[in-house]
């Protein structure tokens, strides 16, 4: 999901996962396959059936190094979360371009190392989920470079940079891409890119496919877990009825279960989220559904997702989009934004994630 001003009511855009993900084995307590470099608290040892995660995106170079970083991480951990995802972002000008670059909105490497260390000290596992966005706004899913060879060469430079950083900092899971539907059909090129990532990072890998993209991704066999940004519309009009929303999830869950079985991999919701606006469940991917308060609808949607997937053996959990914006960077008022912080949806998370052994727990 990208920032509203950067994509103007994005269509299921992320801003990514870290997938605050799980390992491909589904065991939250499996050893990290490389030195984590932690110096502080550790995640608790309770067994859970899936990931409990929250995304903390960055919109500026020094966000992750700001004084607010530690506060946000403590707040996230207090919900019962065990994972946090970070989303360093590079940019290209147009969907047909082949060159990626950093901008003033790209998280600085030092700030990223800083917040990963703080997360580990707060007892949170981490996922790095690098994003590509467009300087002048638009949907990253529409990126279709005129020169695919040049684009993939530059993309490999970008993604392996973060793979090395992830390895150096003990990041527990890594996403090789997010919602790049315009290129994700290029199976051979993506397989080579994934191989280059594996040379540098030895932990579990995923790709965060949009909910309308995942079935056409040809390279799941190269990854450890299937990542989906789960922005399925669940209603044709505003509703605060969790039972109705759970019912809407049922055919989706059946389809996902069958897909997981065919691919021999579990499915992680690398993103899921709802603005606290009336009608958010009709278009979960939109930052601008309405200007009317929708706290109750957001809370119902959180509850319905966790109830619909709780205990399903093929489901690896969820990373919610997103925690608070950084001071002075939010383009949507907090009362209407995706964050559950200080809203009824946060209490829903606390109830679910306090349940030992639950997939939200």
TrEMBL record:
Residues 25-50 are annotated as: Disordered. Pfam families: GH113 (PF22612). CDD domains: GH113_mannanase-like. Keywords: Signal. InterPro entries: GH (IPR017853), GH113 (IPR055151). Residues 1-25 form the signal peptide. Gene3D superfamilies: Glycosidases (3.20.20.80). This is Uncharacterized protein.
């Amino acid at each position: 999901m990208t920032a509203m001003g950067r994509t103007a009511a994005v269509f299921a855009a992320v801003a990514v996962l870290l997938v605050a993900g799980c390992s491909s084995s589904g065991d939250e307590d499996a050893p990290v396959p490389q030195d984590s470099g932690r110096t502080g608290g550790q995640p608790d040892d309770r067994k859970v059936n899936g990931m409990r995660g929250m995304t903390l995106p960055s919109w500026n170079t020094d966000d992750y190094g700001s004084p607010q970083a530690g506060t946000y991480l403590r707040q996230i951990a207090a919900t019962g979360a065990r994972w946090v995802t970070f989303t360093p972002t590079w940019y290209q000008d147009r969907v047909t371009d082949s060159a990626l670059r950093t901008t003033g909105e790209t998280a600085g490497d030092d700030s990223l190392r800083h917040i990963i260390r703080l997360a580990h000290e707060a007892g949170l596992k981490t996922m790095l989920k690098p994003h590509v966005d467009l300087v002048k706004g638009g949907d990253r899913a529409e990126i279709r470079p005129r020169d695919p060879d040049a684009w993939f060469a530059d993309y490999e430079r970008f993604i392996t940079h973060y793979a090395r950083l992830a390895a150096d900092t003990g990041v527990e899971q890594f996403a090789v891409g997010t919602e790049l539907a315009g290129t994700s059909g290029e199976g051979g090129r993506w397989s080579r890119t994934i191989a280059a990532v594996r040379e540098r990072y030895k932990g579990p890998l995923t790709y965060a496919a949009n909910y309308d993209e995942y079935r056409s991704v040809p390279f799941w066999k190269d990854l450890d877990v299937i990542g989906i940004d789960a922005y399925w519309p669940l209603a044709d009009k505003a509703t605060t009825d969790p039972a109705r929303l759970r019912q809407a999830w049922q055919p989706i869950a059946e389809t996902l279960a069958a897909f997981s079985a065919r691919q021999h991999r579990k499915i992680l919701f690398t993103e899921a989220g709802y603005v606290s606006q009336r009608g958010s469940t009709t278009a979960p991917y939109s930052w601008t559904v309405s200007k009317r308060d929708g706290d109750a609808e957001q809370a119902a949607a959180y509850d319905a997702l966790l109830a619909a997937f709780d205990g399903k053996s093929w489901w690896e959990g969820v990373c919610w989009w997103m925690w608070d914006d950084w001071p002075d960077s939010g383009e949507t008022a907090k009362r209407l934004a995706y964050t559950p912080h200080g809203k009824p949806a946060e209490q829903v998370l606390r109830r679910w994630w306090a349940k030992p052994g639950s997939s939200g727990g």
